[in-house]
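Design request, tokens follow.
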């Protein structure tokens, strides 16, 4: 069971950072490369959180930093070329999010430092040797996707006890899904749940996936973090509603109309990413900067969805929820 705690800040408090940082900023413009798997519009809120963290540390775009953004527009096969392009730009640091862009960046360079805003499991994905001693040229923040997914299954079973057939929507070109699905067998068995996998590479395949779920008479659907799923949360929640399927996943899904959301605060992780970038700019080797682990998790319940589905959310879950959408 994961505990909801404040996000770990291994590097200390932040109150004194802005003033101290402004007094020590380098005079030259530092070029930062940002490799994104979706689009500027769908990632805008998270990108702004990262920029806000940089501003808190005294960095100003156009004055002492320049951010070069490259977006794969949900086409993961474009990531290697975009990573190579940023390497050719000789950026001082590469910033990524999630498994596919991070792996693309890691394969593109062993010399340029890489900072991960967040990733499902940095060790399982093979991007760092360990959290405490990452080694190589990668550092940043991580959470554990398999454990998040197991918690979502647990919440779903508690909210809707009759579920036994549960669909997993998988994006096959996200390598982390392989280890995640393998790690779910025991938690699912313990809950008397049989998992059925449905694949969708792109949003145009979502509807076919949900039609297949209905044909195979699943009781509910659980979804894990992927950048494309995150940026299309409303479309996924709408399809789950149209097929009368209780939906459990990341927080944005509950906010968009799904039944249960449980996950990390990715905005805080993006803001925190600025601290890693600052340290790298100041000359600390990324391999010597411990990877931080998210320890704050939020449960969101959508009572409108519950009413539509005819689900009576137990008081035990309501009392533990961080947010309830009426």
């Amino acid at each position: 069971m994961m505990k909801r705690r404040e996000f770990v800040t291994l590097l200390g408090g932040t109150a004194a950072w802005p003033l101290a940082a402004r007094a020590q900023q380098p005079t030259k413009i530092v070029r930062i490369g940002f490799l994104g798997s979706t689009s500027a519009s769908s990632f805008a809120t998270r990108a702004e959180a990262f920029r806000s963290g940089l501003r808190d540390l005294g960095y100003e775009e156009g004055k002492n930093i320049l951010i070069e953004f490259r977006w794969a527009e949900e086409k993961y096969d474009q990531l290697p070329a975009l990573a190579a392009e940023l390497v050719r730009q000789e950026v001082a640091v590469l910033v990524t999010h999630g498994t596919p862009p991070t792996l693309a960046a890691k394969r593109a360079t062993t010399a340029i430092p890489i900072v991960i805003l967040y990733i499902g499991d940095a060790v399982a994905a093979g991007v760092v040797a360990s959290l405490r001693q990452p080694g190589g040229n990668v550092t940043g923040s991580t959470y554990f996707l398999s454990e998040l997914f197991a918690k979502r299954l647990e919440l779903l079973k508690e909210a809707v006890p009759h579920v036994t057939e549960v669909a997993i929507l998988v994006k096959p070109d996200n390598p982390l899904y392989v280890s995640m699905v393998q790690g779910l067998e025991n938690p699912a068995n313990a809950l008397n749940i049989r998992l059925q996998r449905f694949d969708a590479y792109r949003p145009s395949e979502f509807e076919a996936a949900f039609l297949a779920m209905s044909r195979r008479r699943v009781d509910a659907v659980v979804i894990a973090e992927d950048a494309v799923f995150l940026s299309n949360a409303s479309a996924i929640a709408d399809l789950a509603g149209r097929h009368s399927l209780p939906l459990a996943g990341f927080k944005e899904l509950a906010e968009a109309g799904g039944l249960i959301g449980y996950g990390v605060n990715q905005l805080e992780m993006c803001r925190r990413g600025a601290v890693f970038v600052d340290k790298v700019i100041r000359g600390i080797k990324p391999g010597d900067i411990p990877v931080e682990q998210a320890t704050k998790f939020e449960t969101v319940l959508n009572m409108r969805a519950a009413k539509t589905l005819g689900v009576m959310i137990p008081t035990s879950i309501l009392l533990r929820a961080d947010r309830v959408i009426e």
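Comment from the thread starter after seeing the answer: thanks! The chain has two domains: 17-144+264-296, 145-263+298-325.
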